[in-house]
Amino acid sequence: MGDYPDPDEEYELMYADELAMLREDEDHAEPSVVKKKPLPAKRSLDFSSPVAKKPVTSNFANNAPDIITNSGVTESTDISLTPNLQPLEEFTQVSNKRTVDELFGDIGDIDFNEVELPSKRQKTEEETDLELIEKILEGRRLKQILLEPSGRALGGRSRYNAKDNMSLDIPRWPFVALSNSDGDRVYVRIESEEDWENSLDKGMEQMSLHASYASTWVEARKILEDKQQKVISEEVATQPLPDMDTDVNGNMLWVDKYRPQSYLELLSDEPVNRALLHWLHLWDKIVFKKEVKTKEPQQRTTFSKRAGQFQLTNKWKGKKEDQPELDDDGRPHHKVALLCGPPGVGKTTLAHLLARIAGYRPVELNASDERSTDAFRNALQSATLMRSVLDSEKRPNCLILDEIDGAPLPTVELLVRWCTATVTEGKKKAKQQPLKRPVIAICNDLYATSLRPLRPVALVVHVGGVSASRLSSRLAAVCAREGLAVGAHVLGALAARAAGDVRAAIQLLSFIKARAKTQLSMDDVENVAIGTKDCNKNIMQALQSIFTTNDREPDAILKTIQSAGEYDRLIDGIFENYLWGGAAGRLELAAEAVSWLQQYDVVSAWTLRHQNYSLYATLPLCIARCHSLLATRTPMRVKFPLQAQEMYRKKLEIESIVSSVLRGSAPSVSVSRLALVLDVLPLLPYLLAPNLRTANVQLCSASERQSLRTVAGAMCEYGLQYGQHRAADGLYVHSLEPDIYRAAFFGTEEKVRLTPAIRQAIAREQQLEVIRRSEEMASRVPARSNATSTLAKKSNSTTDTKEPSTSKDKEVPLPNHLQRLQPKVVKKNTPQVHKDFFGRIVPLSQVQRNDPVADVISSSSVFYHYQEGFNNAVRRNVRVRDLL
Amino acid sequence: MSLWVDKHRPRDLMKLDYHKDQAVRLKSLVQQSDFPHLLVYGPSGAGKKTRIMCLLRELYGSGVERLRQETMTFTTPSNKKVEIMTVSSNYHIEVNPTDVGIHDRVVIMDLVKNVAQTHQIDSSGQREFKVVILNEVDDLTKDAQHALRRTMEKYVATCRLILIANSISRVIPAIRSRCLTIRVPAPTESEIASVLQLVCKKESLNLPSDLATRLAKAADRNLRRALLMCEACKVQQYPFTSDQKIPEPDWQQFIRDTATMILSEQTAKKLGEVRQKLYELIIHGVPPDMIFAGLLKELVRNCDMAMKCQVASHAANYEHRMRLGNKPIFHLEAFVAKFMAIYKKFVEESMGDVF
User: What SUPFAM superfamilies does its record include (chain B) (predicted)?
Assistant: First the structure.
């Protein structure tokens, strides 16, 4: 037998299997997993109150045999009466087109008739509630004791209360008389020193009693355990051991052996099961050509209210009123269901089981198969477009993609295209058929990067961890079948240790069994090295435990820290919370704690700098030390560390301002970054805030205009400018870019903010300054040649004076930096001789006679130029510098 | 029309206002054919950069003042591109390798090699070496400093380095020994005052000598700050009065406020508030060691002699640890917490003595 029974057999035997198992079990007088949850066999049974059935589970261990016979009998008789089985027979004979009602009963019934719900579940919920209440009460009592040790200690000394020791009359015992300001006299008892010592001793004793509380706790637990042990061993002695080799498939893993075989055996939360099943049934229209009953939204909401944890995301809840669950083609809106949850909670089992229940043949594709794009496309095609030939019933396939978070991104994208593209292109392309079979994808990490494209199109179903109580009851059933004698509290511990992981718990059980033990004690559970869930405690839990004293296991903190990992985040968390914790009142403690944070910082920086991880193991010790300093018994709200990141973000903002100033500033002012931050930027706003009257710039005095120009010049040097922004109130505001006010001031920048008018004036002046400078740059080339020529003249004159001394240098070429360019002597133009056509020289007087006219036009900067058709008016060369 | 700081910066070694004998020596250094690597160090605002630019002008002539700004790109071994801004002329290139953080080694190796490996085409016509100026050498990582020491020797024929640092204590000895170290001490207050007077005279303003000394005092022997403050004073109010308010960098005020806060109340709650202030300072880019120094200076005013020693030694200790670590805020807060604890005890004891 593989993971699952053969599909064709299994289909008929879905219930027959159970019957057979029941009978088998009766023979062995062993409790069966199935029977533990009596089927809601007849509707008439459903009104039975949970209380009536309570003993079935609670006293399960003790009187299992007779209950089994009872329930077994009723069930076997009942099942034949259920309507479910009749259509099954019909089905095998007549139709291969099955209907939901036929196979599973009306799914609508299951969804809506709460009465028909397996009453077992309700019961367990109630039970857990009761348990929880008890637990809470117990916990409160313990806490009371822990929190007020002094209260108890004082209780012993209560005879020294004030009334006994003071009196208004003259007492008989030795006393001291006191009188207050009103003149009332009070007599206070005096005690001998021995008496006092005695009382102190008593107090001390009590205190120490409290201190050894932990050890007492251990003792008490031991006693309890011994008692349990005794009971069990007696039981074992009286009961004949069930023979071990009845297990035909002895080599089967327990996980497979006790895999749920029917809907009712599923351990996952009811809403989860239903959500998936409902989705599967939505496919009925297109797969089985059968009309699907879509649910009334109201009923769904009531249902989810009842469940309280209807964990459907993906906007199903939000959209269910306006969005039909089926699209135009009659397919569900979400083409893919995405199951996600921690490992070992039964996602794969759930998918397989529900697919079979809904009448499909599950086809699994997991990480062990090749998942390249091609292979995946083949698998998709074969699974969704074809159907098994060998299968006698011709059940349609249901593709289950296990461990899809490990699949490469292209593969997931292919799947998404497969699902979505068919919606739009399905009609055009005959080649590619729309997806007509349900696809269930399973993952651990919903937020894996490769799943990003899949999430929006998929129906996301969260499968949470199994609650400890349900897990332990299942474990009890397994133990009973395997002949392990285990106390309830041991199973509880086992379940708690597994932390919702069914697989781990059952494997651990099987491991212990394999060590040839017939009974299990607390030590077995606690001492096995394996089976601890590789739990990643989240950071908040770890932080919380750092700040609370743990009396039970003082050494557990190190483990908690290590399992939380992310020491940096933890350290940040401690840093942000310690002032409100144990160190609230005591500065020495705070100083000590911070010094350990320092220690951490130094070690971790060293580790990172040298890439030498030999000291890495000491980091959690620093945190543990903080725990021992800061832990208190009073509960405290721990905040998630956000401050450091927030600060880092702000720092980056200001750094970017500084860098943009650095980059924008002219090369001539280049200052180092630090000097800019510390000296220039803090003072620059003062320099850029001249005292001006708010008047038109043209009306300013010369000194004001001068200061305005200085400001504009400085702004150009440092690459600042006023930009116009539309403020929230719709007005345009001039603001400095980059905003050096933020970098310079600590929230007091209003000190030197300018009025809008002045800002505008400065902005205008600065733009003018920019133009002026570019003009200067443009005109620099001729200007420089002038300058060099004058320089050259100077150097000439200097060389003239030093002629005799530098004569030797004439041979040695002068270094570049000492060389000066020689002005090129412009030759004077000899007056051109005009020649006429025949080469005869024209006398000068004749030529010049024509010239004056031409000269007037070319030399004057104003001239008229007549063009045909229109007048081009006056043309004049205007330079920018003339306007400034 | 630029700021006074830039406008009145001396361009020539002979026109420097203070440390004149040093200027003479520098000038004679240039005239020698042999020009060594230099390590110029001194506090911020003492005039290191000014002297170096004068020196370069002496070496190459006025061509070094034609500066251009360029962004260079380097590729780290891990294929990350880092950009760094350089200021260069035809004769020199200036760079601040610490801008790229831990990748400074790549910048130094590539840049120095690039510059050094290009020989002058006509070496007879000019100086046969170019100059590379590296800023903030004391903040270079150890790796970068070690990368530097080999390149310094290897390319000495074509390239000279001028290193600028605030303090040489964090420059590895190997580099120190390869350079001629030149210390540029901060100007004295009277020197600053005279420079201020000079600048005001050039601007044809009248600066009262009282105000000049006050400015010099407030500027903490930092000439750049003094000049900026002086100009800010002028912008705010002219004609000067000797008792006018001197604007000063906001962060200094902020540190003083923080210190007052610490002294006012010693509780965990106050410590939480102080932390926010410290964070603010760090955000605004004030280096944590300056925060330490500023806090210590303010805090010890209220301590007796024995406690002064204690507090100072704690501050030194914590500042050292901060340099080893990564998160300055822990160390700052540790110092504040320690001080609060000590101070509270001290106050309680002295209160006890009174009664």
Answer: P-loop containing nucleoside triphosphate hydrolases, post-AAA+ oligomerization domain-like
